TrEMBL record:
<feature type="transmembrane region" description="Helical">
    <location>
        <begin position="322"/>
        <end position="342"/>
    </location>
</feature>
<keyword id="KW-1133">Transmembrane helix</keyword>
<keyword id="KW-0812">Transmembrane</keyword>
<feature type="transmembrane region" description="Helical">
    <location>
        <begin position="210"/>
        <end position="234"/>
    </location>
</feature>
<keyword id="KW-1003">Cell membrane</keyword>
<dbReference type="InterPro" id="IPR051449">
    <property type="entry name" value="ABC-2_transporter_component"/>
</dbReference>
<feature type="transmembrane region" description="Helical">
    <location>
        <begin position="168"/>
        <end position="190"/>
    </location>
</feature>
<feature type="transmembrane region" description="Helical">
    <location>
        <begin position="246"/>
        <end position="268"/>
    </location>
</feature>
<protein>
    <recommendedName>
        <fullName>ABC-2 type transporter transmembrane domain-containing protein</fullName>
    </recommendedName>
</protein>
<feature type="transmembrane region" description="Helical">
    <location>
        <begin position="21"/>
        <end position="39"/>
    </location>
</feature>
<feature type="transmembrane region" description="Helical">
    <location>
        <begin position="275"/>
        <end position="294"/>
    </location>
</feature>
<keyword id="KW-0472">Membrane</keyword>
<dbReference type="Pfam" id="PF12698">
    <property type="entry name" value="ABC2_membrane_3"/>
</dbReference>
<dbReference type="InterPro" id="IPR013525">
    <property type="entry name" value="ABC2_TM"/>
</dbReference>
<feature type="domain" description="ABC-2 type transporter transmembrane">
    <location>
        <begin position="20"/>
        <end position="317"/>
    </location>
</feature>
Amino acid sequence: MRNLSNLVFFHAKRLVSNLSFTSLTLFMPLVFIIFFAKVNESDSVAPTSEIAVINHSDWISQVVQAHMQEENTHYFTEDRSEAFQQLEERELAIVYEIPENYPEQSIIAYSLNGENRDPVWEADLIQSSHRAIEHQVLNHYQIDPASLNIEAQQPTLNFMTKGIEDDLILMAIMITLYMGMGAMVTTADLEQLRSQQVLKRGITANSNSWLVLGSLLLGYSLAMLFNSFMTMLISCLVLNISLANLAPLLIIILSMAFFYNGLMIFLFRYIKDSRIILGFGFLIPTLMFIMTFIGKELDQFEMIKYLSPFHWVFQYIDRGDFWTTIPIVLLYAGVLFTAGSFKVERLLANKK
């Protein structure tokens, strides 16, 4: 076990010191993340009047809306997916979501611009809720409002702002895309070790082909994850992103690391030229990324998006549903790894 850990850290350290690998998995994604985040920030001003309200509360729809100004009732919509699509495309500045058990639960204000709020609509909702409660109480006790000289206490209605982190989505795209390119550098490195008979001598010395291959793959994975996590942490510090929101990104990075390991061992088995492998390094991740958008935009090619792990990563980002997305990425990784690693002694010794 100690021998395995020493080999893992040796290969990880060797790869991190490789300028090509570190440039692709750390410097390049970091530069593009910060650049596009700053560009996005400068173009993110949206009119605060453009809002949508998704209502799940019967009390709001049956009682409160009747007391609101007519122009403020036009913002209510039943199509949640369309509202968030318009928000992502910046056709809306805010999407309010009223929970079913409101006012016990807070209204959530979603915005791409941080704590963006519409004080006019919120004031109308609060005043209308106040009038609705007042009328309900007076009607229940059959009291004429004109006979009272009491000012009713205005209810406190809580709002919670929840920003959709565009920067996290950008980080997920850039880190995983360049992880794929970095994986091709590791595959070329693996092929060079095989062509130089290093792997064959390792099998003879250790008498365990899985120890040799396992130490290489674990070392490569450790180096890839280290650079990806460093990219993520530096991006968060530069862009002032809360580290508390990084759990989905960590899951994506780990799952894609497994996928790229499977792809790496698959290419290692069937391609014997490190130059061709490096060429594939830029082609394969980019092609998988493009497949996702072609399948999304063109109905006749819809099926091809399901072949790309990026499709399932984006589904996880959009829906937050782990069990119907990330396991599929891991399944792809398992299939590629199994197809590439059978008869591992022959694989490492460069035999057919």
